[in-house]
Specification:
Elements lengths: L17 H14 L7 H7 L8 H15 L4 E3 L10 E7 L11 E8 L2 E9 L7 H27 L6 E5 L2 H8 L16 H7 L3 E5 L16 H10 L2 E3 L7
Parallel strand pairs: 2-5, 5-6
Antiparallel strand pairs: 1-7, 2-3, 3-4
Helix pairs in contact: 4-5
């Protein structure tokens, strides 16, 4: 289960042992490599390593209880029928960090229906609209997608193929496809406009996906039990039957 929201560095709760807190969070970070459902929550509590309090430690213990109740949960990889291309999902919240008011970007890539890479990361700028927040997240995800496409091309000794990037914000898609700089976008750092060039050179195809089908949603915000379970299942995470684990 995800940590409770609205944690702050300025917590007035009693301090806890920072070394123990960092050890717990550091151990949890290893699980993120195999558990995309933990990416946001572990990244969230990692923001308070400098001066953790009892509130922060309670969030960490909540993550541990969630892990204890889902020990057999993991990603499934197998042969998939149909399309085997690279498909990515990009999403962000808006001003989710109560201290800096920065947003959190989430990206999730599938190859042949199986998750191959995921990331939950606080953005480096303060977005002033949901469109800008989603645009920045899509630009960051595009860089990851192009790298993955090139890596796959080296395995097959062929040219890199375009990948599909699914975004749930129509305004961000329109901004990425618009080569003109106007008042609504000229303040955005130039490096994030890289996605426009990628769209023009057909390195990726942008697709709109409704929010209810945005699989990367669990990488940007706390979710309820039902919604989290739905996204885990859609992202290829399954319960391993007893007796099948080494």
């Amino acid at each position: 289960m995800e940590p409770r929201p609205k944690l702050s560095r300025d917590s007035t709760a009693p301090k806890v042992d920072a070394t123990e807190y960092r050890s717990l969070v550091g151990s949890l970070r290893y699980l993120v490599h195999t558990r995309p459902d933990l990416a946001f929550s572990v990244g969230y509590v990692s923001r308070f390593m400098e001066a953790p309090t009892e509130e922060h430690q309670a969030a960490v213990k909540r993550i541990i209880r969630y892990i204890a109740g889902s020990l057999r949960l993991g990603c499934r990889y197998g042969r998939e029928k149909g399309a085997t291309g690279l498909v990515g999902y990009s999403v962000s919240d808006l001003a989710g960090d109560v201290d800096s008011r920065k947003s959190t970007s989430g990206s999730l890539f599938f190859l042949g229906g199986s998750p191959v890479t995921w990331q939950s990361q606080k953005q480096t700028i303060v977005a002033i609209s949901s469109c800008e927040s989603e645009y920045v997240a899509a630009a960051t995800t595009t860089c990851q997608g192009i790298w993955l496409a090139r890596l796959l091309s080296e395995f097959s000794s062929s040219d890199a193929k375009p990948f599909v990037l699914r975004v749930d914000n129509q305004s961000a898609i329109a901004l990425a496809k618009n080569p003109v700089f106007h008042d609504r976008s000229k303040h955005i750092e130039l490096k994030y406009h890289f996605i426009r060039e990628a769209v023009e050179t057909k390195k990726l195809e942008l697709e709109f996906v409704p929010t209810e089908f945005q699989l990367a949603d669990m990488l940007t915000k706390p979710l309820g039990r039902v919604r989290l379970a739905e996204l885990r299942s859609s992202a290829g995470m399954v319960e391993v039957p007893p007796g099948t684990m080494a």
